[in-house]
Amino acid sequence: MNDPTADIGTPPPTGRMLRRGATRRCPVCGQGGLFHRWFVMTERCPRCGLVFERIEGHWIGAIGINTIVSFGVLAIVLVAGLALTIPDVPAVRLLVVNLTVGIATPSLFQPFSRTLWTAIDIAMRPLDAHEVDWTQVG
Predict the structure, then answer these.
(1) How much is the pTM?
(2) Residue 98 class from Cβ within 10 Å (0-12 exposed, 13-18 middle, 19+ buried)?
């Protein structure tokens, strides 16, 4: 496995990798079950051997994606809450809902952002032959 002299296989199309990443699967082979618990991800894919943290600081991108999605959801909830309640805006209720969304969204989206970021990273920085066991990629 992971022979550096082996020929590199054909990586999946970017769209497929993004779909796999968005569903908490390995972007390369589609293997699921990458998380031991909600926040604890395996170091490498059990099927193709891809090491998910490809470079030091790899997860900064996942944090960025999580932040963007979380702020987007929070903005939508805030604007919708204001639009639905004007002119009598229930400030305390709106604050409680937005605090809940602001805390829950990043926690719920965290594993998705990690696999999605790995897919984006592979699309931007293609795999080297030694990063994946190409016999396991279908």
Answers:
(1) 0.85
(2) middle
